[in-house]
Amino acid sequence: MPSRARRALFIALALAIFFSIFLATQSSPQAAGEQWRTSWITAPGAPQRDEAVLHFHKVLQLEQKPEKFLVHVSADNQFVLYVNQQRAGSGPARSDLAHWKYETLDLAPFLHAGANVLAATVWNFGTNTAIAQISDRTGFILHGAGAAEQAVNTDESWEAEIDHGIVTMRPKVPGYYAAEPGERLDAARFDWDWNGSPSVPWKKAVVLSRGALRGESDGPNNWQLVEDALPAMEMKLVPAGQVVRSEGVGTPAGFPEKPFTVPANTKATVLIDNAHLTTGYPELMVGGGKGSSIRLTYTEALVDDQGNKGNRNEIQGKHIVGMFDEFLPDGASSREFMPLSWRTWRYLQLEIETKDQPLQVESLRTWFSAYPFEERAYFRSDDPSLQPIWEIGWRTARLDAHDTYMDTPYWERLQYIGDTRIQALISYAVAGDDRLPRQAIEAFNHSRVPDGLTQSRYPSSLVQMIPTFSLLWVGMVHDFWMYRDDPAFVRSQLPGTRTVLSWYLQRQRPDGLLQNLPWWPFADWGQDFKDGVAPEDENGGSAIIALQFVEALRNAAEMEAALGDAHQAEIYRAAAARAARAVRELCWNRQYGLIADTPAQKHFSQHANILAVWLDVIPAAQQKDVLTKILSTNDAGFTAAGPVPPMTAATYYFRFYLARALEHAGMADSYLQLLGPWRTMVGLGLTTWAESPEPTRSDSHAWSAHPNYDLLTVVAGIHSGGPGFGTLRLEPHLGPLKHVSVAFPAARGLIEAEYTRAGQGIEARITLPPGMSGQFVWNGKTAAIHAGSQQLTLP
Fold this sequence. Notes:
Jelly Rolls, disordered N terminus
């Protein structure tokens, strides 16, 4: 590159970084609002940063029941608020200190004339807390939205206590565990009157400092408060499963709905199968049993003596291993245990040991909890084996979405970009809901470090950097732009995408490939990818990373051209062209007709070839041949002409990109052949999709749920025709299917289609929402479609 052009490039990059930082550090609109007249409070003598469970209490006198009573509530780490012994809300949604969330609750439905009791439990699990939990110190805040509501503002008029009855336990499970700890509730030490009229007088709460909204100058504490834009998490009573095994006590008839008794001086276990994985709160009610202990163990699947899961429906010769809670009854009747944090399980085992007093196990109930997605899409066909794939995928997507997305609800509960990009697309396509994707996109933007990159997962109390995930975040922003009609939101993310790509542009080699990247440049859990990292030469040169860079540059160029800086778009296009040319010229292996993973051409993977096809780095005339070759190594029905080298196969995660490449190359009618691994999981009794093939750690992993998206887009052919999904390209690829009916909740309304094969042709009934038009494509033939209902027949 001539020196003058190089100087111009660096000047443009410097200006981009300057304006990105400038825009990113501006105060939020809340800075112009009035200051809150309420305070963060704690209990006298409570530890500030160590483990603590606190209760808060205030009596509100009302002359009459109000129509509305809005309050803003937050805590560090978490709270549950009750009004007159009724659960009114919980939170806050997880974030970071610079964007600490508060929940807005209407307490009016719980209030009445006369004395009303507001009570809250607040907890901080200290060093045992989940990695997704960021924290400053233990505190609680409640702010009335109006003059009448400010009577309940948190200050010294509230009373508080430390509850010594609950402590946490580090889970002892094999593998990486980053979620919530187990809890032990000692009924003899727990204050059972905290939520009503305390039998022991409490002390006045201690004021920490005034609550401050984000954007205030010289804020009084580290919590910069912003309103949570998410709805309340779903909380629904569901069946608790059935007893499938018991020892030390007769099989409890009718339990969990009906009680059973464990005699004195007895050890007993009761195993309950929920029939499918769930997330939520177990609620156990017991009576008597002073001195006894109850352990509740939760697991995704039972294991044999070698630690193998096998068929998840089988229990013979298997036992339970998992994280657990403990409950120590005090002998009183109707004592209830429900953990503060939600749990994940298919199998739940009660291990009971009584002393001198028998224990009556009165009931076990389950409160399902997750983000309140509504399943608005559907996919129905003449192949009944696709129905469980759809149902299991949607269950996986639901359980892996709470106040953030998460890779796995059992093991980590961390919002990773690689998983979240796929989850967000499922949310658009199946639920038509973009609130959780917005939260995720903004969280990753907030996570950016001074170098310019996003963190790989956020919120997180431990910094983890996966540079390649920053490129996928750029793709997430572009996905949002295509599916949802909010260009202002997309424009607000461009300062962040610029810092990410600036970091990469500085590491683009003269030949167009990238240097070695620091931190953890994860690609996929490929069998011979060390720690998930694709092969590199001595100075980098990874084709996989270069191709992910190409996708990000092209996505950013489109957004900049439409919403941002046209000159920046040209810089991105030029860099993308150089990277694509380098992969094509330096990594193309003539002997095999494939892209090698590096210019040294000593290693091959499906991954590099998948991306090279999808991004047209491999010419269109060769794309089908390349995909046939890579699929011939491990997918039935694909036979290559000519030799194929040993190749690293794409796992469940990267097969999302395989589906994109297959459709791009005109091979989408073969998509259903790729569902073999999901059919295998159905046969193994999984009720959510696993992280990886057997043996697998996680039985519920968000990135494996993409067949729901694929069935709607690849098979049913529903695609956004441009930003905001104002137009539609409807191009079904039915493969062996004869009949398909489908619904898709687009930004402007519900798209519905029904396809019936007629020889080589198709009959289609299509209904589009108001304001939408587009094209219907079948076997290369195109017909215009419009808002409203229509019927088409194409040969």
